[in-house]
């Protein structure tokens, strides 16, 4: 039988030292449902802060966009409910816009398009399904200037220099007069951040453990999930939030016909979520070769939507 990417990545990650799994695999049907629970946790401040900016500061952002019309390209668009706030503000300001949501899932793009037709019937919507590392090529030669959105603090999932590499990659599909609009979680009190990634109700733990359950379901594995605990850490100097599953004991697990051994208290690195200061973002903008940046924060300065101009 041909080995799937999922099987290959899981086995490679669990046979590495240190062990690691990949956050992109959190989002099976059950994982996506648990993530919706996380989005509504009182400790998980990110969506509320970003929505506040899009709701209350959209006009300030639009003042920095001088052209009469734009292609608004969204990377990893999802269902588009949050983005609709910004698109609505653009239409109210009489901007001639076409919304181009990019997402790997054709199903979620169908939901997105249906939502936009209902919410903003005058909006032109042109979804493109596929990995945006491939689909970005299709928007390079369009006539109108572009605003490329990467919201939801998704940039935080890139470790170290990979965030800068990604932004530089996106810039290769941009021209003079285009803008990159980035949703970024800012550095703040460490306890505020840790509460969002290690909540008292244990929803984040359930989200992480579900990946082991998915491996059991899809790769004929026998993880005993009671043998693993969730641990989150935050380094206020680097801004790195990391999530781990810790093996509570020495144990052996079968995964896709392979035996994976764990020492007592051995970690599996599950996820990184990078936090930035505004000064960090200024440095990234400069290194990536954008000409200017503007930061629009929520009332607590927990989150920024930053606009980089080519």
Report on the structure:
The chain has 2 domains: 5-43 and 193-274, no CATH class; 46-188 and 275-309, Vaccinia Virus protein VP39 (Rossmann fold, 3-Layer(aba) Sandwich), CATH 3.40.50. The chain is an alpha/beta fold and 310 residues long. Helix 2 runs antiparallel to helix 10. Strands 2, 3, 4, 5, 6, 7, 13 and 14 form an 8-stranded mixed beta sheet that branches. Helices cover 36% and strands 26% of the residues.
Briefly note the structural class of the backbone. Answer: alpha/beta
Task: Please give the radius of gyration in angstroms.
Answer: 20 Å
Tell me roughly what share of residues is in helical segments: 25-40%
Give the distance, in angstroms, between the N- and C-terminal Cα atoms. Answer: 47 Å
The CATH architecture of the largest domain can be named as 3-Layer(aba) Sandwich
Total domain units: 2
Helix tally? 11
Question: Short summary of the structure?
Answer:
With 310 residues, this protein is of the alpha/beta class. It has helices at residues 5-14, 29-39, 46-56, 58-63, 83-92, 106-119, 132-135, 162-171, 190-197, 203-219, 278-288, and strands at 19-20, 69-75, 96-103, 124-125, 128-129, 146-150, 179-185, 228-235, 240-247, 251-255, 258-262, 267-274, 292-297, 303-309. It has two domains: 5-43 and 193-274, no CATH class; 46-188 and 275-309, Rossmann fold (3-Layer(aba) Sandwich), CATH 3.40.50.
